[in-house]
Design brief:
Order of helices and strands: HEEEEEEEEEEEE
CATH superfamily of the largest domain: Jelly Rolls
Shape: globular
CATH architecture of the largest domain: Sandwich
Distance between the termini: 63 Å
Number of helices: 1
Number of strands: 12
Helix content: 10-25%
Radius of gyration: 22 Å
Strand order of the largest sheet: 2-1-10-7-12-5
CATH topology of the largest domain: Jelly Rolls
Structural class: mainly beta
Length: about 160
């Protein structure tokens, strides 16, 4: 078998494998999106909990292959905010129920039950503690945090 034939055979196998994976991925159920919630209990204490946004296989832009989609949520506003390294926001409640999409940097949030968690680019937090004792937030690390805040309700 010539070197050219070997290369062509190898390339056709790779293309076949890639096409097989593309076909498989377009029919596989996508994973739900996980996020962290900050909730408040009846005593006004804030706590971390988990949430997820259901995803289903669907078409977003034709004729692209199917991909994982959530339902469409109504969001009338969005705000970008940033904070430099060392920023500290003392105890406060959320100004409204909203998702915080972490785009860069590392933030650290402490809830009133004492638990501390760090969030980095790609992490999603739903702040729901609009009443009660609230939480603190600070920027850790050596780069600014950048967060996109979008109020929408996953329960609607």
């Amino acid at each position: 078998m010539s070197r050219l034939t070997q290369i062509l055979l190898f390339m056709s196998l790779c293309i076949g494998v890639a096409n097989t994976h593309a076909e498989e991925s377009s029919t596989q159920q996508p994973e739900n999106v996980q996020y962290t919630r900050i909730v408040v209990d009846e005593n006004g204490d804030s706590h971390f909990s988990s949430g997820e946004i259901p995803m289903a296989l669907g078409s977003y832009a034709q004729p692209e292959p199917k991909l994982g989609l959530s339902k469409t949520y109504q969001a009338a506003t969005a705000t970008l905010f940033s904070a430099p390294p060392g920023y500290f926001g003392d105890w406060h409640t959320a100004i409204r129920k909203q998702f915080l999409f972490h785009l860069s940097g590392i933030s650290e949030i402490v809830v009133s039950d004492g638990e501390t968690r760090r969030f980095k680019a790609g992490d999603i937090v739903l702040v729901e503690d609009t009443t009660g004792k609230g939480h603190t937030a600070r920027s850790v690390g050596d780069e600014d945090i950048l967060i996109l805040a979008v109020p929408f309700d996953v329960d609607e």
